[in-house]
Design goal:
The chain is of the alpha+beta class and about 425 residues long. Helix content is about 35%, strand content about 25%. The protein has helices spanning about 15-25, 45-60, 105-120, 150-155, 160-165, 175-180, 205-210, 250-265, 305-325, 345-355, 370-375, 390, 405-420, and strands spanning about 30, 35-40, 65-70, 75-80, 90, 130-135, 195-200, 215-220, 220-230, 235, 275-280, 290, 290-300, 330-335, 340, 360-365, 380-385. The protein binds zinc ion.
């Protein structure tokens, strides 16, 4: 067994890219909009089950001891020299939005596996145990709550609440976990790691635009999700005079426009973001004025204070449009996470590791939510981002990072993991 490792150690880039391609075949579909082959592994569907089984198999093949917890998070544990010490966790997710590429989340999980393989190739055993993890339903598209697995594992969400969440067909998280064979027995919430690291694609244009190799993530901005029901009155599109209408579809459209204006109006800072991502009208017919609109709103801001102001003003906006258009608007907040700053010492470690590898880097705030934000509540945590091509487009089959971009990020993960796993 090797006692020390000469820096900088590197992972096998080709093997990593091969694993990403293999996993990307599961849940593959032909995307109508782009004409490309995309990935659809919505959480706890049959395709997600296939992905879970493949990755679990790979973890076992790497000699890891695999456990599944009560919310279906999967952990592969590699023993340490001082095996009783708290582990280092390297993780992310393998579930996807219905129109995904092969990199989101998967890079963090398969990259972590590649870190283990690199250590195995060297026959090097770290002081602390290392765990490779993937967490249930990070995306939140199916059951409405993102970071489901990691939030439950770290105590933000109770197991009962998580189990009871339902998809549009009324199927529960617990039932679907059971169906897939991933309702594990490892108690959730018991794990207290020494540190948590995650490598992820940026999912935005900044790193690629600046020609940087990697980004050292300073934290995750505040996120607030809302589900709105607009109720008016459905009516005949030909016989009902315009002035008699209570058009819920029109009110939703107006609200969407007003939301954009509000986001750009200034008081919430330059980084304010808002989107009405889903709108569904009832009865959704060519010749009927819609009586009901269901829509979702996603608000993001790096500052908790500015986010609170935006939420308050958005609620007022709803009241205003409801009275203008003669509809009622009820709103339910479906998710809320505050601005999460990552650990400064781990950020510094990632930066110095990148320096050692000769990689250019800058600090970057994450616009998207990640499992790391949940772990940062229970242990020191940070993330490394890799750039994406095509303006870093993500949640889209065009999502693409080169083998070099992926391996740069995972090499930083490996270097930092070696330091953290050796800490007393
Ligand atoms: Zn992700």
């Amino acid at each position: 067994m090797a006692k020390t490792v000469k820096a900088p150690l590197k992972i096998n880039a080709e093997r990593l890219y091969g694993s990403l391609a293999d996993l990307g075949k599961l849940g593959a579909y032909k995307d109508e909009t782009t004409g490309l082959i995309g990935v659809n592994r919505l959480a706890l569907t049959a395709a997600d089950g296939e992905g879970r089984r493949l990755v679990t198999k790979r973890l076992r093949e790497a000699g890891l001891q695999v456990t599944v917890d009560q919310i279906g998070n999967v952990y592969g544990r590699r023993q340490g020299r001082e095996d009783g010490l708290a582990p280092l966790i390297l993780g992310s997710h393998i579930d996807s939005v219905p129109t995904a590429g092969a990199f989101d989340g998967c890079l963090g999980v398969l990259g972590a596996l590649e870190v283990i393989r690199a250590l195995d190739d060297l026959r090097f055993v770290t002081r602390r145990p290392i765990m490779v993890a993937f967490f249930t339903d990070e995306e939140g598209c199916r059951f409405g709550t993102d970071m489901l697995g990691s939030a439950t594992a770290t105590g933000r969400l109770s197991l009962e609440t998580a189990y009871a969440l339902k998809d549009r067909d009324g199927l529960t998280v617990k039932g679907e976990l059971e169906k897939l064979g991933f309702l594990g027995c490892e108690p959730v919430g018991a794990l207290r790691p020494h540190a948590y690291l995650e490598c992820h694609i940026e999912q935005g244009p900044l790193l690629r635009g600046k020609g940087l190799d990697v980004g050292i993530v300073t934290g995750v901005q505040a996120i607030s999700w809302h589900e709105l029901t607009l109720t008016g009155k459905s009516a005949h599109a030909g016989t009902t005079p315009m002035s008699f209408r209570r058009d819920a579809g029109l009110a939703a459209a107006r609200l969407n426009c007003a939301l954009r204006e509000m986001a750009l109006s200034g008081p919430y800072g330059k980084e304010m973001r808002a989107a009405m991502g889903a709108v569904s009208l009832t009865p959704n017919m060519v010749n009927v004025v819609p009586g009901r609109a269901l829509c979702t709103v996603d608000l993001r801001n790096p500052s908790d204070e500015l986010m609170a102001k935006a939420e308050k003003d958005f609620a007022r906006l709803c009241e205003k449009i409801a009275s203008q258009d003669g509809v009622t608007i009820t709103s339910r907040r479906t998710a809320k996470t505050p601005h999460v700053p990552f650990d400064a010492s781990v950020q510094a470690l990632l930066a110095s590791t990148a320096d050692g590898l000769g990689l250019s880097h800058e600090p970057i705030l994450s616009g998207a939510g990640h499992d790391a934000q949940e772990w940062s509540r229970v242990c020191k945590t940070a993330m490394v981002f890799v750039p994406g091509e095509y303006d870093g487009i993500s949640h889209n089959p065009r999502e693409f990072s080169t083998s070099r971009q992926c391996s740069d990020g995972v090499n930083v993960l490996l270097g930092a993991a070696l330091v953290l796993a050796e800490e007393a």
